[in-house]
Each structure stands twice: as structure tokens, then as C-alpha cells.
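Quick log. Single chain, no ligands specified.
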Amino acid sequence: MRNIAVLVLALFMAGCSFRPEMSQVETKFEYRFETSDINDLWWQNFNDQNLNLLVEESLKHNIDLKLAYINLQSAALTLKNSRADLFPTLGINGEASKARTSGETYSGQDNVKYDSFSLSAVLNYEVDLWGRVRNSIASSDALLQASRYDYDNARLTIASNVVQNYFTLVSLKMKEDILKETLKSYKDTMEYRKKQLEVGAITQIIYLQSVAAVQSAQINLTNVQNSMLSASNALAILSGKSNDEILRDIIATSDTLPTPPQISADISSDVLLRRSDVASAYESLKSSNALVGVAKAAYFPTLSLTGIFGFSSDELDRLFVQNANTWSLAGSLAQSVFDYGRRANNVELAELSQSANALKYEQAIKAALGEVRVALHNRKSAAEVYDETQALLSSQSKIYDLASAQYETGYADHLTLLDSQRNLLSTRLVAVDAALTLNNSVVEIYKSFGGGFKVEQNQTK
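-> predicted structure:
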């Protein structure tokens, strides 16, 4: 009866856990609910084959993503090690010895020689009385989930950076084409003015104005080409391709920015399920919460069981006979009494870590919702600016056409023509920037909504 009572008590204690309740984090925000139609291959919605190729290559070869995958593998192995602590360890121990006694010892037996052989299986098991092992497993499992979400977040960040760098490089190429075209026109005008100056049809100041226009366009072109080299280098690092491959094989065939897709998305209450960084922060909180239970379990004794089963004999050829078998069972209870406050400090450290992760989780939630709101506002503003810029470009083109026609017929002076040329060039360059801003604002929408990530999809991995 007493043995049964001891067994019941042991089973009861094995179910104990000192893991505290999860920290309460404010997650209620007053935003209306609407879902989005974003998928995890969102960059394909721009319908640009060069862009698709760059993103796919980057996701295969990017070093940051490879590091995130290594962290994911490490977390998975750590979880396996934690789970292994739930089960006993089994070892094999074999011994062989030869000895001779001394007649000068208490036995008085001189020159007695004997052999000893043994082979045993040793079983060790720590009973998880206070939930230390189970909480360690819970912590490792949460860290594995966090690593999965970190991998998803790294994938989204890399894809977003590749897309935006690609758009920047294409916009610079568009500017280069505009400036080359403008420079050629300015040079033709300069040559024409030179001939007019030689025959006395114009003053020298008109000729010098045309020379200054060429010089200004040449400076702008050089600056744009320098920026293209820097942008291609950044894209090369992200994608694993060389600068020559990007400029010669990809950008050379990209004449204009793609038309940005329409996105059905708004600030929503389910955005917290669509952000891998928010999901990772929550798993980190869960991990630190479990570690508080691990730290508190150190206040209580550990119960270890040991079993030895094997054979022992003075003769090697009789080691495995029935009469040579041996066994032993033992249990030990160990408790630290004085540790100079180490356990208390460890508990406090674990609780501080939990508090810090709770704040990080709350911060991640607020940042996520804030980024969604800003991204939606920026997309709306970028679309308005783009439309206004297109209207301005149309107006400046008409102004230039009129100024050019009036100058040729003598109804406008050369300064009016130069002003219309400069304004048209400036507006064409601004129109490229407006298109770039609009495309990037769409990328930020995809990014702020998690790039198609959903918690429920990743929990089944």
C-alpha cells in the first residue's frame, strides 16, 4: 500500500510546472476590418519577367537568407535535444582487469592473482518532477517557430529590397535615356546657333546659352550614370549576379517601369496574422515565459534513477552464462542548499527577459499597424502625385511646342525657348521619379501586409 502511495505521489509531482501565466499585452486597436488579396509571390503581379528572374535568383543565392535558414536548422536541432531529455539515456560499460594481491595487506594473502570481466547496460533517467524538461521543450519549440517566422521575414525583406532596387535602376535608365535624347537635341541646337553666330544672325550670348544647356545636360547625365553603377552594385549583392549581368542582360532590356498592380487591401484587424515579425515576437515571448518555469524548477530537488543490467565473471569464456548476470536499481535525490543567490538571480533574469519580450511584442504590434497605415496613405498620395505629374508633363510639352513654333516665327525670344526646354526636361525627370515613388509605394503595401504570410499556414510546417 505504501509503494502505491509513493507511486501516486511521484506521478502527481511529475505533472507540476512553475511556468507563469503569459504576460498580458495590449493588442486591441480600433481599426476597421477588411481582408487583402496579397499572395506570397506578390512581385509577379508587376508582370515583369526581368524582375521575376532577379527575385527568384536572390531567394536562391542571398547570403542573409542562407544565414536565416541555418538559424532555422539550429533551432530545430535544439528542439530535438530538448525532447531527448524526456527519455532515459542508455549506455554500455565493459571492463576487464587482472590483479595480484599483496601479503603485506590486511588480508595476508600473498601472490593471489585473479581476473575480472564485466559487460553492463547502464540506464539513467531524470524524473521531470517540476516541469523543467517540459518547459525547456516549450521554450525550444517556441524558438523554432520564431526562427521559421524570421526566415519568412528575411525572405520578404530580401524580395522587397530586390524589387525596389530594380525599380530604382530602371528609373535611372529611363532618366539616362531622357538625358541622352536631350543632350543630342541640345548639341544639335548648339551647332545650329554656332552657324547663326558666324553669319551674324544671333548674338554671342544666345550661342553661349546653348553651350551652357549642353554642359548642364552632360553633368546631369554623368551623375545619373554614376548612380546607375551604385544601384547595380547594390542589386548585384542582393541577387548574386555581377554588375555586368545586371546592366547588360537585364536593365538593358527594361525600357520603362512596370504598371503597378491594384491591391485590395486596407487596415485590418487580421494584419497581426499576416506579419511574420509579429508572429516571431510572440513566439519569443512564449519562449521566455517557459524559461521562467525552468529557472523556478531549480529551487526544488532533482530525482534521478539509475539501472544497471549485465554480466560479470572472473573468466571471459563464462561471462554470458546464466549465473553471471547482475543487476542493480538506484535512485538519488539531489538538492542545492546554498548557492549565494544564484537561483534567485536566474529567476529574476528570466522574468526580466519575459518582460522585455512582452514589450517587444507590443512594440511589434504597434509598428505593424503603423506601417500599414503609413503605406496605405503613401500609396494614395503617390497615385495623386503621379496623376498630377502626368498632367504637368502634358502642359509642359505643349508649352515647349508653342515656344519653339513662336521662336521660329519671331514671336518669342530665345530665353523663352530655353526656359520651356529646361522646364520640359525637369518635368520629364520628375515624372520618372513620380512613377518610381508609385511603384515603391505598392511594394511597401505588400511588405506591410506581410507579403502573403499567414500564421495558420506556417503552424502546419
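Strands lie at 89-100, 113-127, 302-313, 325-334.
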